[in-house]
Design goal:
Chains A, B: It catalyses: glycine + O2 + H2O = glyoxylate + H2O2 + NH4(+). Two copies of one chain form a homodimer. Helices cover 30% and strands 27% of the residues of chain A. The first copy, chain A, has two domains: 178 residues, FAD/NAD(P)-binding domain (3-Layer(bba) Sandwich), CATH 3.50.50; 145 residues, D-Amino Acid Oxidase, subunit A, domain 2 (D-Amino Acid Oxidase, Chain A, domain 2, 2-Layer Sandwich), CATH 3.30.9.10. Chain A is globular and about 60 Å long. The interface between A and B is medium-sized, with 22 and 22 residues.
């Protein structure tokens, strides 16, 4: 695409906003469509950029894409900061806590696997872990220190991306999109033409693309936001992860004594009610890991539908001529924002996309898969 | 007091509002002072009017006052309805659930005690209780049916009392009161004179009366508001109470599938942060009693300081010439509103106050107790 092309981005979650910012910085005339910018799954997130401590052997394509994006995160954050917007990046790393022998064995396996990938990960005793994070429960038996894991204040980042996009001349249309066809977008206020359209509507993407229909499903996630109080322990300095009764729980510290506690995961369609069960399980899990949280203030409960794919890989690539998919990021939207934005810019510029994105072909396993492959 | 006297009511919780309404209906020119009317402890309440299922042998003065107020509740509600305002009264009764042999034995004792007081209370098996309330846990072993217990939608009542007071010409000053002396009230906007002043400022009353200083203390209570969802069980039709791990838990149904779940109780000064521990304990307790609540939406969490006295009785009566106390109602404000309002009207009219109020003398056990008794 040459000159000063018009790009529509449908969806203002972290994926759509990262694309909008990068494209607007590269000279595109960007229009972002979203009835409620930044208030979907990216808003209801912990902000761990942790492909590693979430990874298990067998998930290689997901991990490869995550590692590729993680490598791009420092430059992505630095570019945003250079334009004058705080990306909210934290470099404090992650600890993973184990409560019993089985947990500890799994951490040992994970540590070995990570070292094979060239990542730093140290297996330590519970006592050594509590020296690093004194608020951890005495019943934590062992743990993993993963200093390379990054975290981001998702809400700060979303605000920064909106502001940076606007500063580059991008505009926002806060209307729901009803249809997008060959480089046209129809929203509530009428139809507009573009040189290219990016579909980044998360869990709603299936309703806007025949090729993705039924292949992006909403998966409800709930989080809690907590705040320490006078007389209570300060939050941990790093992200803390553990499994409690088979459920993954994370505590991600924020500036100012806040903490994000996540996340449940339910098949619940587009329902976003925060349930009694979800809240109880998160609080029980967190108290098990970090008992002092019992005295914290519960500041907010929130739920949003994440965009799940069948194989945990997102859908990245051209759907039809001039319409590109950047969706299905599930729990990894914040992590995968830089590699996704770079991929979109590569497609638009006719360049070779980042490593790891080929596996995320949006037509893989779909009815139109064969046709697509013949075309390629 | 003759003619059309000017009455100041300091505090717009249920006590202050009930007094304001009754006094305005009786022809007083009423001015109510509160920086945030109806947003204190009365707002954060279940609304059980249940002296009986809360009572234990030994608490006779509290129970006597509660029974006296309960007797006045139907007429109080009917009067309010007659003026055109819905008091939100529910006549569905209470069930008390027991999980083990010890709980069940206590219910047996309570049933006997209640029958001695002339109240209806039927001890039934867990199976029989579940026939009445099918959502109760299979681990409920026995229970008490108390059909005479009333409940009130506290927020509906508070709104009705404000509207009724306004309809009778009462006015509201939404300013904090800094001082009240011999029938004058000083608020942020200046000082005003009155014929009489009622101090109904709940947990804040001690700061406005030397005689009450240190004798009304804030006791933090937290509640949750839940709502049933598609596919979840409907709420119980009656108030349900039980002890879970030694903590009292109640579920009070509201119109429209809502449910109030309460209440924690902490010595926490005027802190009103909703804590992780409080929420977890309430949710755990409720799930133990009524497992289907796990699927309910958590709609709201709230905390407020209740006004506790040393002996659980409120402070009702003249403090100094022309200044009357109507405070210290602890968890019983909604129950005791009618008897308290009637007492204030009796004092103002020089009539004999309702039965049970004498024990609530505001100078009992205070430094000025002797003086006061000599005066009487």
């Amino acid at each position: 695409m040459k000159g000063n092309p018009g790009l529509a981005v449908v969806g203002a979650g972290v994926i759509g906003l990262a694309i909008a910012w990068k494209a607007s910085a590269a000279g595109c005339r960007v229009t972002v469509f979203d009835p409620a910018p930044a208030r979907g799954a990216s808003w209801v997130a912990g902000g761990m950029l942790a492909p590693v401590t979430e990874a298990w052997p067998g998930d290689e394509p997901v991990l490869e894409l995550g590692e590729e994006s993680l490598r791009r995160w420092p430059a992505f954050a630095a570019d945003l900061a250079r334009e004058g917007f705080d990306p909210g990046l934290s470099l404090n790393g992650t600890v993973v806590a184990a409560f019993d022998h089985a947990d500890a064995e799994q951490l040992g396996t994970l540590a070995e696997y990570l070292r094979e990938l060239g990542r730093e990960a140290t297996f330590v005793s519970g006592r050594a872990l509590r020296r690093e994070e004194p608020g951890l429960s005495a019943s934590v038996r062992a743990g993993l220190l993963v200093p390379g894991d990054l975290a981001v204040d998702n809400r700060k980042l979303l605000g920064a991306l909106i502001d940076a996009t606007r500063a580059n001349g991008g505009t926002f249309v806060t209307e729901p999109v009803s249809e997008l066809t060959s480089s046209r977008v129809r929203a509530a206020g009428g139809e507009r033409a573009f040189d290219a359209v990016v579909l980044a509507a998360g869990a709603w993407s299936g309703g806007l693309s025949a090729a993705l229909a039924g292949r992006v499903r909403p998966l409800k996630g709930e989080i809690l936001r907590m705040r320490t109080r006078r007389g209570a322990l300060p939050p941990p300095s790093r992200t803390v992860r553990a499994f409690v009764e088979g459920r993954p729980v994370y505590l991600v510290p924020r500036a100012g004594g806040e903490l994000v506690l996540g996340a449940t995961q339910y098949e619940a369609g587009f329902d976003t009610a925060v349930t009694a069960r979800g809240v109880r399980e998160l609080l029980e899990g967190a108290e098990r890991i970090f008992p002092g949280i019992a005295e914290y203030e519960l500041v907010e409960t929130a739920a949003a539908p994440r965009a799940a794919s069948a194989d945990n890989l997102p859908y990245l690539g051209e759907l039809t001529d001039g319409v590109f998919a950047a969706t299905g990021h599930h729990r990894n939207g914040l992590l995968l924002a830089p590699v996704t934005a770079d991929a979109v810019l590569a497609w638009l510029g006719g360049e070779s996309p980042p490593k790891g994105t080929a596996a995320a072909d949006p037509l893989r396993g779909s009815a139109t898969d064969t046709t697509h492959r013949e075309k390629v």
